[in-house]
Amino acid sequence: MTLFDVYPLFNVSLTKGKGCFVWDDKGTRYLDFYGGHAVISIGHTNEHYVQRITAQLEQLAFYSNSVRIPIQDEYATLLGRVSGYDDYHLFLCNSGAEAVENALKVASFVNGRKKIIAFKGAFHGRTSGAVAITDNPAIKPPVNDDAHVLFLNFNDSAALEKAFAEHDICAVIIEPIQGVNGIYEPTPEFLKDIQRLCQAHGAFFIADEIQCGFGRSGQFFAHQLAGVQPDLITMAKGMGNGFPIAGVLIHPKVAAKYGMLGTTFGGAPLACAAGLAVLEEIEKHQLIPQAATLGNYLMDECRQLPEVKEVRGKGLMIGVEFNFPIKALREKLVYEHHIFVGNSSNPNTLRLLPSLTITKEEIDLFLEAIKKCLA
Predict the structure, then answer these.
(1) Range in 118-122, 145-149, 279-283, 296-300 the model is least confident about
(2) Which helix (H) or strand (E) holds 350?
(3) What is the pLDDT of residues 293-311, one digit of tens each?
(4) Cα 263–268–272 angle (5° rounding)?
(5) Which string of DSSP letters, residue by residue, matches 295-321?
(6) Domain span at residue 362?
(7) Residues 44, 45, 51, 56, CA torsion sign
(8) At CA 117, angle to CA 116 and CA 123, rounded to 5?
(9) Does residue 314 sit in the same domain as residue 256?
(10) Are residues 41 and 55 in the same domain?
(11) Element (H, E) at 90
(12) What is the Cα–Cα distance from 245 to 142, expressed in whole angstroms?
């Protein structure tokens, strides 16, 4: 049997990682400046993370959600405190796409509507409901073509007002920083317009924080930079540092009903142990303000690189757009300088998503390498 070939792969076989570095099967060390799609938030094989998961494995690895699992309550309490959303409810699941599916279900169950506003360039996942609100025809098969979705442009408040006037809107879903599209942000004023219109029309404001959440933007959630408060917040990626865990934060105005949501593996003890370790490390080592400070340094330095058209982002979620396609540059960074960086749907934009534990010295390693590539 062979794997189903769906990704273009670098010819590198990784076998271990530590901190912000990974090693291949030949012993070559690579600087991980991509964090495996923004997943590695506290570094590879973080010592506290390994200890937390190992200790839980020795106690209880799994039981279904037909009983109380105390570590779920422990996780919810700490997440509420660290995020500032301690009055919200938490639904735990397994992946970002699943979090999006459940956020859409909650909105539709509560207000009984089905028209969704999403945005051009959006990426919300590959499952049925999530891919329907993703603006990429290449990954959307006919069975997922959803007539209930309106795609609007970022920061077009007039079009947003018009959509609410003409349709019975169920929800508006937006990435406070678009990741896959190449790191684009709505303005704070536009996010406030979404919140205002949703409140006025009984619709749900959904913030997709799957890639930009958990400290990556220099705030716990990127929408907090704009001073808005969504009704539903989807989370995954950096939440578990590589262990599959995801969730939806649900406004306290929403009353839970049996049968509304469900999951087999969501909130499993090992996943909660991984999630607790992430939150504990973020809090203990002040990784969120560190991401803001080092991110500003990295963006300022990238603006000085030759052939740079624009540098976008917040914290350690950065897009560097060049005046040329970056495919060859990315390959040169991997094969000649042993540094992983990300691409995006914008062919000229590198995505930089290192662990929140990255150091200035490691950032300088990247800067030195990319300058050599561009010389």
Answers:
(1) 145-149
(2) strand 349-352
(3) 999 999 999 999 999 999 9
(4) 125
(5) HHHHHHHHTTSTTEEEEEEETTEEEEE
(6) 14-46+286-374
(7) positive
(8) 100
(9) no
(10) no
(11) strand 89-93
(12) 29
Do 275 and 311 lie in one domain? The reply is no
| Contact by Cβ (8 Å): 174, 207 | yes
- β-pairing verdict for 232-235 and 246-250: antiparallel
Nearest-angstrom CA–CA distance, 236 and 221: 12
Integer angstrom CA distances of residue 88 from 48, 201, 307:
27, 21, 45
Same domain, 316 and 275: no
Opening angle at CA 121, ends 119 and 122, nearest 5: 60
Q: What angle do CA 338, 342, 346 make, to 5 degrees?
A: 140
User: Helices 269-284 and 287-302 meet at what angle, rounded to 10?
Assistant: 70
Q: Say how many CA atoms lie within 13 Å of 119 toward its Cβ.
A: 27
CA distance 30 to 295: 20
Q: CA gyration radius for the chain?
A: 20
Domain-ending residue, one of 262, 284, 306: 284
237 plus 224 within the same structural domain: yes
Cα 14 from Cα 11, distance rounded (Å)? 10
Q: Are 31 and 115 in a shared domain?
A: no
Domain final position from 284, 299, 330: 284
Rounded to whole angstroms, the Cα distance separating 300 from 292 reads: 12
Question: Nearest-CA neighbor of 20 among 35, 7, 6?
Answer: 35
* pTM of this structure: 0.98
Q: Are residues 243 and 339 in the same domain?
A: no
- Give how many domains the chain has, as a whole number: 2
| pLDDT band, residue 349 (cuts 50/70/90) | very high
**250: β partners:** 89, 232
By the 10 Å C-beta count (0-12 exposed, 13-18 middle, 19+ buried), 13 is classed as: exposed
**What whole-number distance in Å separates Cα of residue 240 and Cα of residue 42?**
9
pLDDT of 206 over the 90 cut: yes
Beta-sheet strands, E only, within 100-219: 115-119, 149-152, 169-174, 204-208
Q: Are residues 183 and 326 in the same domain?
A: no
Continuous H helices in 22-69: 35-38, 47-59
